Amino acid sequence: MNEFKNLLAVADRLLGPKGCPWDRAQTLFTVQPYLLEETHELIEAIDLGDSKKIMEELGDVLFILIFIAKLGEKNAHFTLEESIQTVKDKLIRRHPHVFEGAVVSSSDDVVAQWEEVKKKEGKKHPIDDIPPTLPAAARAQKVIQKMKRYKIAVFKEKMSTAPNLTEHGIAQELWDLIEKMEGIGIDAESALRRICAQYEEKFKKAGDGLMA
């Protein structure tokens, strides 16, 4: 793809000796906020169903990923080629039913197989690969998914019939709601984000002139 090669050339030019001072000053740590911001902008575009905006934001995410890879090359940590090779090998290794003739009969079988492959890769616990920086609702749902997959029952404290208006009590109720959402196939983080957007829109309409 010539367009991809041209984008790589742009990144090299920006980070080169005669490139942009701001870009050349960046590190793997300083670009983290931009990766987060661009990713959220892409998620917003997908929520809006705006194809043009999705295309634009996808390009921004792609470039920040390339930029991170080029920073890795600049500091001799890793190369873009190595990163591509690593993910290619991982995808082949984790899909033996596609590349090696293994037999699966359902999506559940695929997920179980995926977990088994990860064990062989050295994963010591099912939740080890859940990013600690995930938003709380998304992380809770991931933990719930893993618990269900491994048939792990976690005994909850017995709740009284009266409202438990403590931090722990309300948090437990939130966990229970997320567990219910997981049970019927609803992504809690996405659902909460969308309902929040609806209330924000209502607030904007109701609050016209508040800042006047």
- By CATH, the architecture of the largest domain is named Orthogonal Bundle
- Give the domain tally: 3
Question: How far apart are the first and last residues' alpha carbons, in Å?
Answer: 51 Å
The low-pLDDT segments are: none
Class from secondary-structure proportions: mainly alpha
Strand content: under 5%
Write down the oligomeric state: single chain
Mean pLDDT: 90
Separate helix tally:
10
Give the helices and strands as they follow along the chain. HHHHHHHHHH
CA radius of gyration? 22 Å
Q: Please identify which CATH superfamily of the largest domain we are dealing with.
A: MazG-like
Major beta-sheet overview? none
- What is the approximate shape? globular
Based on DSSP secondary structure assignment, what is the total number of beta strands? 0
Please give a structural write-up.
The chain has helices at residues 2-15, 21-24, 32-48, 51-74, 80-93, 96-99, 107-120, 136-149, 167-183, 188-206. The protein is globular, with a radius of gyration of 22 Å. The protein contains 10 helices and no strands. The chain has 3 domains: 2-87, Helix Hairpins (Orthogonal Bundle), CATH 1.10.287; 94-124, no CATH class; 132-212, no CATH class. Helix 1 crosses helix 4 and helix 8 (136-149) packs across helix 9. The protein is mostly helical.
